[in-house]
């Protein structure tokens, strides 16, 4: 059976299952609307470690351990890890996952990495290369601010278009063993560069990429927005959501009824002072694990399009005057 | 047919072909022993751009364009790009490949990324997800020194154990269409951490990972070193080569006759003052494209094990007192 669909998509002949998911989050995320849904909330933003980077490694470690336990398998059953984070050289991932002793494919797609890792894990399992593969991603407010923006102690003010990097990690076990949620297809994103240069407005950088991937998904699978119960982006926030809905309208589709954004879901803007919303590759990962998958598993949502969005921001390219291109990877998840 | 082999390997039921390869290199590399074998050597280390990072993007762009032309296909035939580099947030890759308008999986495995990208491209093509997939990696001496060590203008001295980051990019088209070299199997590496903390001795950081992957490849495929014409690591250099051969002896295998290292091949140590040898994810990529594949295609080598090696070094984790773990991804390439 031909699995390649349209220009950028795969419709799996043997659709793999997400058999377990786990979420680990920080204190602020624990105080937000999804707080009670996370598997683990740690009130210490260093997770018992002496710096934020090690804290992020600990989150990945805890998330993957929990996902493996929930799947009722041993870590030796997991044949491949697909992991990534926002930090240079993926240090949260390499140090966080090294003691699992499992072959690792390190990935970087900025905040879209949760979609990239699930896509590759699904491709791997569906092809028969593994019975179990894990997808793990994380972000941490402290380590991300330090790397991409200003030292926290500097106390800079942020414009209202800025997002708040989520401290969290999500892990997923993808398998050919039966579960209640299934990855039936993927639409892999291209780098989309509208020339936006504002590092304090990631939503505007990513919205064109999200639009490109969602539009292509609808084309490749011959679907309309109504074929999805939800179309869920990663971390566009309020600013990016508005742009995405406008861009999709320009392409002939109204997704305002279906659209949901993990960055909007995870914080209470009015109470938590998080401006445009949450962001980071932990944002979409913990929201998928804690809120989206449970809704799919119980059948409240029959089919969703999950589109983690990434802004390919680097301080080096930014300081050299380059734009901030975006990328977004779509994953179709269905109840079964 | 069962494709999973042993603990960490895949033996492809439908082994994909590497139908074309292209290499782009800098001036110093052009003056080395492989100089005449590269497709393009640029005497300007900025490749006509105004900084090293853009130069690295240009190299990736040139390498992929050349590989697509050599394969006699159009860029629209390439369904997926698997790409990466050493820079934070993969800026060489995202800016270098964005105008191809092809779905991109961004990868980070430090200098092992060439092996990681070929592995995933082979898995993708063999499973029928694509007829053509491209694997592209690069490194640049200037951008790497600036990011990982000292400003070039500082003129620091290096110990003899240090390697010289290769300025170069290699691109490969992997396809189910027939060629003269075939990826018959892969062995995906784990993060291996011997606790080495010397950022000026990458060979020592990576040798344990290379040993782990090579040993596991021999176990998983029930082979001995003699079953390979060459066992080729990425960038261990002279220091790392010695350690690898000793470590393999401890595990019961003498690979001294088969072992070759791209970092040793690419420079003339005596004339070019490159200390332990070349390194970077461009090093193994251009050596594969310019020297290794031609030998396989003409049948001089029937079967080789190609093992790009990566040191998961980051200035942040290094300054926080962490070690430099290694990872190595094995790719079995055969003449056909």
Major β-sheet profile of chain A: 7 strands, mixed
Poorly predicted sequence stretches spanning 5 or more consecutive residues of chain A: none
Reading the helices and strands of chain A in chain order gives EEEHEHEHEHEHEEEHEHEHHEHEEHEE
Q: What structural class do the secondary elements of chain A suggest?
A: alpha/beta
Please name the two chains that share the biggest interface, counting residues whose Cβ lies under 8 Å from a Cβ on the partner chain. A-B, 58 and 58 residues
Number of strands of chain A: 17
C-alpha geometry of chain A: globular
Oligomer: homodimer
Q: What is the CA–CA distance across the termini of chain A? A: 21 Å
**Mean pLDDT across all amino acids of chain A:** 96
Helix content of chain A: 25-40%
Number of DSSP helical runs of chain A: 11
Rounded to an integer, what's the Rg of chain A over CA atoms? 18 Å
Proportion of beta-strand residues of chain A: 15-25%
In order across it, which strands form the biggest sheet of chain A? 1-2-10-17-14-11-12
């Amino acid at each position: 059976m031909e699995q390649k669909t349209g220009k950028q998509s795969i419709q799996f002949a043997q659709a793999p299952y997400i058999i377990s998911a786990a979420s680990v989050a920080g204190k602020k995320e624990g105080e937000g609307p999804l707080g009670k849904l996370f598997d683990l909330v740690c009130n210490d933003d260093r997770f018992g470690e002496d710096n934020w980077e090690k804290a992020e490694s600990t989150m990945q470690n805890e998330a993957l351990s929990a996902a493996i336990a929930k799947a009722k398998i041993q870590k030796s059953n997991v044949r491949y890890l697909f992991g990534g984070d926002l930090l240079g050289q993926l240090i949260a991932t390499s140090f966080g996952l090294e003691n699992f002793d499992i072959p690792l494919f390190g990935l970087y797609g900025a905040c879209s990495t949760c979609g990239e890792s699930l896509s590759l894990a699904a491709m791997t399992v569906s092809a028969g290369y593994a019975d179990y593969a894990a997808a793990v991603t994380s972000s941490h407010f402290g380590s991300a601010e330090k790397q991409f923006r200003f030292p926290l102690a500097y106390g800079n003010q942020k414009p209202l278009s800025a997002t708040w990097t989520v401290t969290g990690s999500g892990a997923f076990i993808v398998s050919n063993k039966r579960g209640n949620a299934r990855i039936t297809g993927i639409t892999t994103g291209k780098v989309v560069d509208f020339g936006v240069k504002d590092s304090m407005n990631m939503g505007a950088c990513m919205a064109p990429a999200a639009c490109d991937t969602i539009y292509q998904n609808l084309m490749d699978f011959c679907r309309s927005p109504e074929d999805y119960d939800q179309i869920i982006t990663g971390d566009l926030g309020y600013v990016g959501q508005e742009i995405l809905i406008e861009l999709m309208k320009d392409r002939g589709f109204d997704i305002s009824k279906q659209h949901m954004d993990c960055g909007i879901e995870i914080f209470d803007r009015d109470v938590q002072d998080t401006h445009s919303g949450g962001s980071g590759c932990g944002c979409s990962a913990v929201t998928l694990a804690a809120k989206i998958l449970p809704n799919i598993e119980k059948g409240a949502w029959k089919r969703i399009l999950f589109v983690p969005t990434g802004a390919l921001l680097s301080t080096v390219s930014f300081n050299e005057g380059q734009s901030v291109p975006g990328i977004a990877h779509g994953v179709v998840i269905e109840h079964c």
